[in-house]
Specification:
Strand 5, helix 10 and strand 6 form a beta-alpha-beta unit. With about 425 residues, this protein is of the alpha/beta class. The longest helix has about 45 residues.
Length: about 425
């Protein structure tokens, strides 16, 4: 009957529309776990995939440090995918991506116990089994209790109240104003001091860099002086070292007003700043320091030029040519003079070397070469290598790597600057 056929067609059209609507609803619902799993996997991949260029470098640096967050993100995506696993292939793909993401994002946390064990053993071998015993209990009470606190990875690490004075001028060579930042405990006094030199490939940066660390250490009972220097390529080596020496002379001359105990000073730098800190300590000290702390600093600029990392996200050779005015063939003597490893000799201040195992700017093997040369010349040195970390890992202050490095760095500082007796 004609009427029956029309009814059947309408029913068929209705069923088709319902099926299409149901499929679309399923597709839309599947997009949520798919999107989360894709984002989680993409971010987690940078834990094992080195950044090919400077634009992507923050992903390579940051992904291992926020791995607890990534584990959480991948786990949520996994649970959402499990809900619809029997409904569509979309959920199945999301499930696979989430599983891979969880494995990748767990790698730093899985390596943490072994890395911590090696670091603890290294500290004890160099500083002694009971190296904190000579440190006053009041100082020990402020040290971080654990190498890694999961809650801190989510909520952050916040320093206590300190006094901050920024932009204090200390020199104006060639008309360039050089300033320092001063971070001090709330109570006026004379404190053991950390002079901090920022990184930035000798081309950029300011004393404001890594301020969370400076504030944190000031809250722990230190005066922290973050100093400035002129930048390449406009100003080439040894200008930067001269600026550091000028800053140190200023600190010495104004120690009382800066609340610096000039008898208890440590130089600390990161990357290019660590390079300058080592040169100032090993080559030409303005005044004696107790120790130098080197976070992933270049040590042999000739080898660094001839053996750049792969990939090389900042173009290491270009950076060194900007800094030194040419290649090692063109400026062989200058490269030699600018390499801290050239100045290793007996009776240097103790060194703390902190390097990232997956560093694609300053390879850890160069830091280890410095460590071995320091040891063979009879110097005390502590080697801490974080196997999963990339260059500048401590930019994420509450990250996995920085928590571990901070735990031992503050113990090293307490032993060197607060101990009642010298290291044997």
């Amino acid at each position: 009957m004609p009427g029956t056929s029309a009814v059947c067609r309408r029913l068929q059209d209705h069923l088709v529309k319902r099926k299409i609507a149901a499929f679309c609803a399923l597709l839309v619902a599947g997009l949520i776990p798919s999107l989360l799993s894709a984002v989680g996997l993409f971010l987690s991949l940078w834990i094992v995939v080195p950044a090919p260029n400077r634009l992507l470098l923050p992903l390579g640096v940051g992904a291992p440090e926020v791995s607890p967050w990534l584990v959480g993100l991948n786990t949520i995506a996994l649970l959402l995918a499990l809900v619809g696993i029997h409904k569509s292939w979309i959920y199945q793909v999301a499930l696979v991506c989430s599983v891979i993401g969880i494995i990748l994002s767990s790698l730093p946390l899985m390596q943490l116990p072994a890395a911590n064990t090696r670091m603890a053993a290294e500290m004890q071998v160099v500083l002694g089994d009971d190296y904190l015993n000579p440190v006053p209990q009041a100082v020990q009470a402020h040290l971080r209790p654990h190498p890694f606190v999961l809650a801190d990875a989510f909520r952050g690490i916040f320093p206590g109240e300190v006094r901050c004075d920024r932009g204090i001028p200390f020199a104006a060579p060639d008309g360039v104003s050089l300033t320092l930042n001063l971070y001090r405990p709330q109570v006026i006094g004379s404190y053991p001091t950390i002079v901090v030199i920022y990184g930035g490939a000798w081309r950029e940066g300011s004393p404001n860099h890594d301020e969370l660390f400076s504030r944190y250490m000031a809250a722990q009972g230190y005066t922290v002086v973050a100093i400035d220097y002129r930048h390449a390529p406009q100003y080439q080596f040894p200008i930067q070292l001269e600026d550091v020496q000028t800053a140190l002379m200023y600190i010495q001359q104004h120690a009382k007003e800066l609340e610096v105990d000039i008898e208890r000073v440590v130089l600390m730098g990161r990357s290019a700043g660590a390079h300058l800190a080592m040169l100032a300590t090993y080559r030409s000290l303005v005044f004696p320091v107790r120790a130098v702390i080197n976070y992933y600093g270049p040590v042999d600029l000739i080898q660094g030029y001839n053996d750049p990392p792969i990939p090389d996200p900042i173009d290491t050779q270009r950076v060194l040519k900007d800094f030194l005015g040419g290649t090692p063939n063109e400026q062989a003597d200058l490269y030699q003079k600018a390499s801290p490893i050239s100045y290793v000799k007996p009776s240097l201040p103790i060194s703390l070397l902190v390097y990232a195992g997956r560093d694609h700017l300053v390879q850890a093997k160069f830091g280890r070469a410095l460590y071995e040369k320091l040891r063979t010349t009879g110097n005390q040195t502590v080697w801490l290598e974080i196997p999963w970390a990339e260059h500048a890992f401590d930019a994420v202050f509450s990250g996995v790597s920085n928590q571990l490095a901070l735990f031992y760095t503050e113990r090293f500082l307490a032993r060197i600057l607060y101990a009642k007796r010298e290291i044997a």
